[in-house]
């Protein structure tokens, strides 16, 4: 059925419906982008993307401005990206992306969540090849047909393009994120979302009962302030 279908399905099943969970994570992404590349979105593509995605999740402007201000302060927190790979209940594969200012704390917490919920953390690199890392862009269908749009984007790294109900989803390799972003700006296409995602290349079916067991682990991971994203091989 194609990666776009799987992505839409995953988006519809998204668990982060609780603003108390997702807002701090969005703000942290903005703060990290601003600290790395400066607080001016016009001069910092990563910050523009973080703000775009935050707005798509209805993060208030005051929160966005506060995150940028924190990044430019003399006491700005230094965050590091760290990933974990693990196997959960019933053999589900789990890839966890974190942003932390205390690696010792994060490692201990992530291992505890897995161990107490029927899983275990595995060595780094054990599962990464089971996921394709993709740049994914969402936007309203512009004033051109899909074939013409595809021709415009193909040289910038486009791999797949799908449209449904006036919403277009474009896929590219994660290394082409910048090329694609620049092309959208050139074409005057306003994105509603731009993300780097890990998509399972061999998704597996699990029963509702099995997924209920998995949810206990996912909930614990999502509640952790250091966890930015969770990916699984659930079909």
Automatic annotation (TrEMBL):
Q: Which key words are in the record?
A: Cytoplasm, DNA-binding, Transcription, Transcription regulation
> What are the residue boundaries of the TACO1/YebC-like second and third domain, all occurrences included?
79-234
User: Is Transcription regulation among the key words of this record?
Assistant: yes
Q: Which Pfam families match?
A: TACO1_YebC_N (PF20772), Transcrip_reg (PF01709)
Q: Which GO terms describe its molecular function?
A: DNA binding
A Gene Ontology annotation in the biological process aspect, one of them, is: regulation of DNA-templated transcription
Query: What Gene3D superfamilies does this protein's entry cite?
Result: 1.10.10.200, 3.30.70.980
Report which superkingdom the organism of origin falls in: Bacteria
Q: Which segments constitute the TACO1/YebC-like N-terminal domain?
A: 4-74
Q: Spell out the subcellular localization from the entry.
A: Cytoplasm
Q: Quick one: where is this thing mainly located?
A: cytoplasm
Q: Name one GO cellular component term.
A: cytosol
PANTHER family, sorted = TRANSCRIPTIONAL REGULATORY PROTEIN YEBC-RELATED, TRANSLATIONAL ACTIVATOR OF CYTOCHROME C OXIDASE 1
Q: Which family does it belong to?
A: Belongs to the TACO1 family.
Name of the protein in question: Probable transcriptional regulatory protein CRV08_07835
